[in-house]
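Title: Comparing notes on inverse folding

I've been comparing how different people in this forum approach sequence design from structure. To keep things fair, I'm posting one structure and asking everyone to reply with a full sequence. Here's the target:
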């Protein structure tokens, strides 16, 4: 029996016969205010910028050119298996395909990673990845220093966290991203790139 099994067994014995917990109240606001899809996209952009992410807007005709510009300083770019091929058609960086055998040291040698997302939350400026084909494994967005995330607007944008939870599968590996990785010490000196990308570029696709 594993340690986990022993702990769960003790919990079951301790709670045997206890009454069921009352249902949690759900009387909170599902969304704060009424917005058009364009206003929701603008709010997402504003909150992402507040977190020091860099926000760009383009459409399908311009995404290859924009991504080439964002990757101009990158020698290598990590590509999830389901990323649309035409997105990187103009990029000159060498493409590195995600492999299960890739170690953190292998990923650390990659300059950038480009992914899609599951959805984005406007009120919190949060991107959510769930390991889908255009996103790849969680580790590929945590180790490289530069992450470019493409959000389809308006289809992948919701107003609030409650709306996001209704659309997400809790059994998938969810990664919630609010700006580039950062932390502060006791003197509030900000350090970026501690446990994730130092630079986060977000492309709002379809929002021109």
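Reply #1:
Here's my take.
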């Amino acid at each position: 029996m594993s340690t986990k099994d022993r702990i769960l067994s003790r919990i079951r014995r301790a709670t045997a016969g206890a009454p069921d917990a009352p249902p949690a109240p759900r009387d909170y606001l599902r969304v704060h205010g009424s917005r058009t899809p364009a206003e929701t996209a603008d709010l997402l952009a504003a909150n992402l910028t507040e977190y020091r992410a860099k926000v760009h807007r383009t459409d399908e005709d311009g995404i290859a050119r924009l991504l080439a510009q964002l990757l101009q300083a990158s020698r290598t770019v990590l590509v999830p298996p389901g990323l649309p091929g035409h997105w990187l058609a103009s990029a000159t960086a060498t493409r590195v395909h995600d492999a299960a055998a890739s170690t953190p040291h292998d990923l650390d040698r990659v300059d950038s990673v480009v992914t899609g997302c599951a959805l984005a939350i406007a009120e919190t400026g949060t991107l959510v990845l769930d390991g889908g084909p255009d996103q790849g494994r969680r580790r590929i967005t945590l180790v490289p220093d530069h992450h470019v995330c493409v959000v389809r607007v308006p289809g992948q944008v919701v107003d609030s966290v409650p709306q996001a939870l209704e659309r997400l599968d809790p059994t998938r590996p969810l990664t919630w991203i609010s700006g580039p990785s950062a932390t502060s010490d006791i003197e509030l000196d900000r350090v970026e790139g501690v446990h994730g990308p130092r630079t986060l570029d977000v492309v709002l696709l379809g929002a021109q």
